[in-house]
Amino acid sequence: MRRWRLWVVSPANLLVAAPRGRVRVGAVRGGTRAPPVAVERGSGTVLTVGALLAIVVVLGGVLVVAGTVRDVHRARAAADLSALSAVASVARGGEADCAAGASVAQANAALLTDCAPQADGSVVVSVVVERNWPVGWIGLPPVASARARAGVVDGAPPGRQRAPP
Question: Which of 13, 36, 98, 132 could bridge to 115 as Cys pair (CB 3.0-4.6 Å)?
Answer without folding.
Answer: 98
